[in-house]
Amino acid sequence: MTPARQRFHEIHYLIRQRIALLQYPPQTRLDIDKLATEFKVSRTPIRTVLQRLEYQGLVVTRHGVGTTVSDIDFEHLREAVIFRMRLAELIGELSPLAPAPEVINDLATARADCHQLLAQPPNLEAFGRIDIRVHESICSLIGNAHLQQVYDDLYYRTVRIWFHFLPRLNWQDEIAIFLRYIEDQLVAMQRGDTRAVGFLIRNAVSGVVIRLDHLFAEMEVN
Q1: Which helix (H) or strand (E) holds 147?
Q2: Which class is 74-221 in CATH?
């Protein structure tokens, strides 16, 4: 990989993570000049990154407005969430990779960090960073390059929904559910059961959808 390509991936990774963690909330304008100054590059690589993010559904570019972070519309993204659930089932079928020891160690660290959140005031960013680390651990098991790319894109396109509405859910309950999920994933990886990893993702995402549907129903009543 060339240095320029490596730099592109680094900048894309950081900006995409900021969008996912809501550090750049929906409708935030992304200033090319400011980003170029921050990352010490010209405007061209920033434009390339923003074009990639637009393709991934995370930003929108409008004439006269510039590039802004896309809105979070659960109903619009519901099909993407369902597609992600189905793709997760393929993780254990399409050239799965055995979990490396460092991946299992990273997941064990994520479990410990998640457990600490139970005794702390709500911290959405800390929660989000743990979720991203778990996602990256799972992506390391996907041996099919096309599946990995599409699944990774769908994760970042849809995970903002959960992060956005999480403060309206019961924090302690959500952390406890997430902790159990990490523990189950850790057991599956220690067994080398990549098929179980995929089904655990499907079930976890399905649970989030159900809880969000209940939340929206309550919001309509109130």
Answers
A1: helix 145-165
A2: mainly alpha
3-69 and 74-221, same CATH topology: no
Exposure on the CB side of residue 68, measured as CA atoms within 13 A: 13
Which of these, 140, 158, 185, 21, lies nearest to 83 by C-alpha position? 158
Contact status, residue 186 vs residue 111, Cβ threshold 8 Å: yes
Domain 3-69 CATH assignment equals 1.10.10.10: yes
Give backbone dihedrals phi and psi of 30, rounded to 5 degrees, phi first. Answer: -100, 110
- Give the model confidence (pLDDT) of 157-191 as tens digits: 999 999 999 999 999 999 999 999 999 999 999 99
70-85 per-residue burial string, b: 16 or more CB within 10 A, e: under 16 = bebebeebeeebebbb
Low-confidence ranges of the chain (pLDDT < 50): none
Long-range contacts of 97-101 (CB under 8 A, 24+ apart): 97/140, 97/141, 97/142, 97/143, 97/194, 98/141, 98/192, 98/194, 99/137, 99/140, 99/141, 99/189, 99/190, 99/192, 99/194, 100/140
Tokens 């793709």 correspond to 87
In angstroms, the CA 128 to CA 114 distance is 10
Q: What are the structural domain ranges in the chain?
A: 3-69, 74-221
